[in-house]
Fold Response regulator transcription factor.
Amino acid sequence: MKVLVIEDDPDVAEFITLALGIGWPGVEIELAESGEKGVELVGNTNPDIVTVDLGLPGMNGFEAIKNIRTFSRVPIIVLTVRGEERDIVRGLELGADEYVVKPFGQMELIARIRALMRRQQAPPDDAPVVCGRLSLDFTKRIARIGVKEAILTSTEAIILKHLISKEGVIVPHAALAERIWGASYPEAADAIKVHIRHLREKIEDNPGNPRIILTRFGVGYFLVKPG
C-alpha cells in the first residue's frame, strides 16, 4: 500500500508513519509538508490513500482537498485538531472521505483507514433496492425517485441502503457509523448529519422539510416509504 501524508508537523508525521508501519508492514509512505506539494504528489505518485492536515502553511488542507478532487478520487482522511462541526462539514463537502480529530491513538487511525479501504474495495452488489417510488442501484450509486435521478457518494449509498433495509425503524447514529466505518466514534453523529443533508438535497422535494428521511433528534434517522 502507498500512502501520502500531507502534514507540516514532523512529530505528527512521525506518529502517523509509525502507525502505518504497525498496520501495514512494508507500507510505502510519501511525506509532503505543504498543500501544494501534496497536490503535486497525488498526481505524480498515485497513492492508495491520502491523509491531510487542515492547518498547513500556504495552501491549507481545505484547499488541498478541493484541488485533489479536481482530478483524483483517491480516499482522503482529514487529520486535524479542528473538531468543530463547521470544519467537519466543510471537509466532507469538499470531498474528504473520513475525518479524525487529534489527538488520536495509533490503533484508532489504523482501524479507520482499514474501514475506509474496505469500503473502497468491497465487491459490487448488483441487487437493486426498492422502497415505494424510491430505488437504489447500489453498484452504480444511483438513486431514483419518480423522474428524479441522483448520483450518490459511496457513503451516501451505504446510508440510504441501510435506511431502506430498516424502513420505518429508527437507526441510531452508532449503528449507521458501524455500517459506514466499521466502528462508531465521538464525531460520527456530526459527520453523518452532513451526509444525511446531502442525501435529502438529492432525493427530497423539499430538503428543508423532509418527508422521506426523517430525524429522531438525539437518536438517529428513519426512512418513510415514499407513496
